[in-house]
Amino acid sequence: MVETLEQSLRRALASKPLLLMAHLVAGYPSFDDNLHMLEAMREGGVDLVEVQFPFSEPVADGPVFARANQTALERGTRVSACFDLMARARNILPGPLLMMGYCNTVFHMGEGRFLEKLAAVGAAGFILADLPPELGADLYGRAQALGMSGVLILTPNTTLERKREVARQARGLIYCAARKGVTGLKTDFGGSVEDFLRDVGAVSPLPRALGFGVRAPADVAFLRGKAEMAVVGTAALETYERGGARALADFYRRLQEGVLTGGREA
Amino acid sequence: MVETLEQSLRRALASKPLLLMAHLVAGYPSFDDNLHMLEAMREGGVDLVEVQFPFSEPVADGPVFARANQTALERGTRVSACFDLMARARNILPGPLLMMGYCNTVFHMGEGRFLEKLAAVGAAGFILADLPPELGADLYGRAQALGMSGVLILTPNTTLERKREVARQARGLIYCAARKGVTGLKTDFGGSVEDFLRDVGAVSPLPRALGFGVRAPADVAFLRGKAEMAVVGTAALETYERGGARALADFYRRLQEGVLTGGREA
Amino acid sequence: MNLFSSRSGRYGPYGGAYIPEVLHSCIAELTAAFYAAKDDPAFWAEYVTLMARYSCRPTPITPLDNISRHLGGARLLAKREDLNHTGSHKLNNVMGQGLLALRMGKKRVIAETGAGQHGVATATMAARFGLRCKIYMGEEDVQRQRPNVFWMERLGAEVEPVRLGSRTLKDAINECLRDWSHSMDDTHYVLGTVCGPHPFPEMVSYFQSIVGQEARTQLLELEGGLPQRVYACVGGGSNAMGIFQGFLDDPVELVGVEAGGKGLKSGRHASRIASGEGSVGVAGYRSYFLQDADGQMVDTHSVAAGLDYVGVSPILAYLADSGRVRFTAAEDGEVIEALKLTMRLEGLIPALESAHAFAAAYREARQLKSGERVLISMSGRGDKDIFTVAEALGDASWLEYLKRKAGG
Amino acid sequence: MNLFSSRSGRYGPYGGAYIPEVLHSCIAELTAAFYAAKDDPAFWAEYVTLMARYSCRPTPITPLDNISRHLGGARLLAKREDLNHTGSHKLNNVMGQGLLALRMGKKRVIAETGAGQHGVATATMAARFGLRCKIYMGEEDVQRQRPNVFWMERLGAEVEPVRLGSRTLKDAINECLRDWSHSMDDTHYVLGTVCGPHPFPEMVSYFQSIVGQEARTQLLELEGGLPQRVYACVGGGSNAMGIFQGFLDDPVELVGVEAGGKGLKSGRHASRIASGEGSVGVAGYRSYFLQDADGQMVDTHSVAAGLDYVGVSPILAYLADSGRVRFTAAEDGEVIEALKLTMRLEGLIPALESAHAFAAAYREARQLKSGERVLISMSGRGDKDIFTVAEALGDASWLEYLKRKAGG
Ligand SMILES: Cc1ncc(COP(=O)(O)O)c(C=O)c1O
Ligand SMILES: Cc1ncc(COP(=O)(O)O)c(C=O)c1O
Predict the structure, then answer these.
(1) How many CA within 13 A on the CB side of residue D289?
(2) HSE of C405 in the Cβ direction (CA atoms, 13 Å)?
(3) Touching subunits for chain B (3+ Cβ pairs under 8 A)
(4) Sign of the torsion formed by the C-alpha atoms of A215, A221, A227 and A228
(5) How far apart are CA C400 and CA B14, in angstroms?
(6) How many other CB atoms are there within 10 angstroms of residue D276's CB atom?
(7) Which sign, positive or negative, has the C-alpha torsion B122, B127, B132, B135?
(8) Is CATH 3.40.50.1100 the right assignment for the domain spanning D57-87+209-393?
(9) Which atom of ligand 2 is nearest to the CA of D237?
(10) What is the ipTM score, two decimals?
(11) pLDDT, tens digit (0-9, with 9 covering 90-100), for C223-277
(12) For chain A, which residues make up each domain, given as ranges?
């Protein structure tokens, strides 16, 4: 059996204080672009990637990703092609790959077929933004049986009781949303994010990936020692759209430096 | 004391089987035109004339006269000028003159002043299209005391009882509207008009003036022996508008011939 | 106070039926039919049932808590005629006259309309009762109230723009009388307000009295007491007569609010009584009118088409003279402000006509002690006024929308 | 049949709350507040009183005598939700949720709107309750329903056109969820129909049940018996759930009428159940949706903006599966014909949404014996649809009017 997501992450964390998690929307701007982005991620030292399967109702996404979802679909992106992209990504990137999306994609193809295909392309797990643990128990259980992790999300406004409940069912990592709201909005990194991460740490031993609003080396530097991973989404997509693969690789590289230098040179 | 309206009419009827009654709207198209029209009436042998004082709410008038009322007012026609016109008409035409209009003109200037001025310009009486006998008893009484006649109207849809009531209060002549509706619409001259005139004759000894829809020599010929007067309104105004004073005089002349020939030459 | 005991159609020196002789018989027939119905208790019961099942009578009384708090002073309440089917108190009168027309065996109805509300109500009644229907509407009002024209036509009515005179309400009334003078055999003329020749003022008052009857009962039941004042806008006066009749014998101040237009000194208003510029005249009935030195009716102005009328109910003229009803006016500008405030604070959209009553009540609310009640006649809803209101507010995106729709 | 006894938000395999984790706490708070209110008899009483005084509840039931005669067959009756303040059944839900929002101490409300009716109702409630208000409306619907946008703004709401997705109702719902995910502390999301995550389907059903409760009582009282059938249009399903709940335990056939658009075979409709083209999916809740082979929600079409929605109530999905509710569809063309007939013969102007229920009832009326009763949910009035209806009927003078207004 292959390494689980948690095992891969722990191995990586042994040699690096803060991992970098990247994001892309499959089929946006195009699958060719996705490949260029993946190359840039490898060059930029990204540790793991979530590949978002576009959905017509991306309620957890802010305007940038929501529009990316829509455009990808308008350009004909099919679910099968998203799996194909994951398979190719596997050959480009050394780190773990996560499918990210909405649960209707899974339910529509059937949970069994979904997990099968996901395993077949070598994914380490998945994040379904609209599938709470209590409604996904079956899916999450079956995934685990196949060695894949159903990643769950925690937000600062979750009660302690609920945090415990989610942590109990979480596998692989805990995705910590830095604030309320959807992706792509501004986040103030400060005491409250630190408190939130400490709370999550108190309820779960899993690596914590902090996302929503991570844009700059200083943000990453701030997270060092407080979380195990930084998730960079919207800012990376904007960078690619402005400057292409080269700019994107640079962008990740600067974030890596941020981890090491504390962001002082950004 | 001068002759009453009824006396004048009886005198004229002694030498003519059917009198011709004409109509004009004071100030329409202009007071100068009114004078030309009056000359034409004299030339055409008209026996008596009703001079309509324009009113802003001419509910008893059809489109042609209603618009004439409105235009006269838009051109600044004042009540005092209408009286002046009557005074001048007196010098043009030998026959009796009637003021025609709506009761607000009278009430607004005051009944006393109205009757005074009317007497001063030598009018024989007045027709107020919206003043039923029961609401005008006072005015009609005062007019009679001054030797003037308040002319009342009968229509074919009036009950016998009502005809009697109106006839009792009527003075000078009975204005018989040939049909329901307002001025200016088409009338079918035939048995029902004849019956109506006979009914009116049965309730009142006054001369009967038949109006509403009299347009052609044949109409006039039809009325000979059935009524004492024919009232020509809309058709005359249309004739003047098309051909001026000369055409109007011809028009009346042809109607007179209709009276004599039975309309066969029209 | 029984205004109608004499059945004479006279109210002090006002009222009467100044009509061409040709209309005498049909007015007589109508008068007889009306009194026969009025004397038949089953008729009122039938009317009340109809209004309960076809419209939503009794209409509620809504307390305007937010505005009362905002203004400080009286407790304001609105009688919600806007909730009637077709959106105004006009339906009350129309359905009543419809029942009467059926009793008389008429097959066709005609009506004038200013704001369009009475026309829509009549077209609705005609559809429901299977009568042919023609609506006369001043050409200027056709322009102001196009949506209403659209619905009247869809309801099966023919809408005839009236191009005579000032091309507003009074001219539409004249045109109805002209139509009626030859169509009376099969046609009933559904006059829309408490004006015109007898028996219309009494008859329309009778049907509209349902409003005041309900209001009095509701206030006693829900509020435990009478209002100190009642405000109603006055075009012809039907909503005012409707609500006032509930309180004529009570120690309640009744306030009629006329259209102050651009101001009572501007010459551009429709205030026959409050302005002091009206004088007694006759146009179908005797009452106050705005007239010139020769007794010609003058052009009036109001932001509310339904108040833009040169005459006023002979009954209200009488009640004004006798001091039973106080008259005041609200100007276009205040009316728009009152409308805005009512929308923002209460979620109610009064018709521009009704907003006159709101404006005057707001202006005077502070004269009363807190806890004292003010009842406002919300005679209609303002949806119909979108073109006028959007224009008055200078709404740019609305204009742009129209441009696109017109082009497409 | 108590659909809600479990309080689980599950209806057979349907329902649930498939939401981003960030919404978990506010949905939990709402659920607790809702059940607390539901368990408090004073709350329902407060709600009923509010609806009686601010709107005109109980709304009447109007017999459609002329149409019944015209069609031959059943006795048709309409439950008149069009007479509600703001013109549709949407107000029932909104005022109820407003009371709940006040109980929860919220200061702001947000809502999606398709036809605009729910938006106007929410803006109205917000004005009345002193809450800030933002309405999300698909850009396409902003175009179709501009008058409603105008009134929402005048009522003090901010209207935000949604440019994502198909720019219709579902996208407006998504945008509300996005807003709510960061505004939940002071904001209540007033969802407008019996869809969305639990507790919305149950909560909206609860408030709308006032319609069915009234209808059942009224029919027994006025007609002396139950209807054989009840027809209601189904967008999300709130008016249908409202009226159906009065008759769930009775031998009454319940018929949900979906938007057949250009035809069920045309691919341009919004029929999730009757077409057989819907399939089970999840978008906030589990139910039938119109989706493509990958589970992407597809574009829907209807002449009625309020029915132009890709999903359907999980409760109705359950009732359809179990055979308790029969589903059918009415196409745009039939709907316009039904609307015309209803205007001409009854003087009623149903909203285009409601006209779907009328169309299906008319089509099937002859299946019933004369004397058997058919109750139709007249969920709203059609005034708001003037632009759409005028366009559908190709009204030339309306277009010309717009041109002039736009130019002037
Ligand atoms: C809503 C509304 N209120 C008031 C009026 C004025 O009429 P009245 O004075 O007869 O109530 C109108 C006239 O159309 C109206 O539509
Ligand atoms: C009048 C009317 N009826 C029906 C609907 C459809 O909604 P629902 O199915 O929730 O009743 C709408 C939606 O806007 C509406 O405005």
Answers:
(1) 30
(2) 32
(3) C
(4) positive
(5) 76
(6) 10
(7) negative
(8) yes
(9) 9
(10) 0.95
(11) 999 999 999 999 999 999 999 999 999 999 999 999 999 999 999 999 999 999 9
(12) 5-258
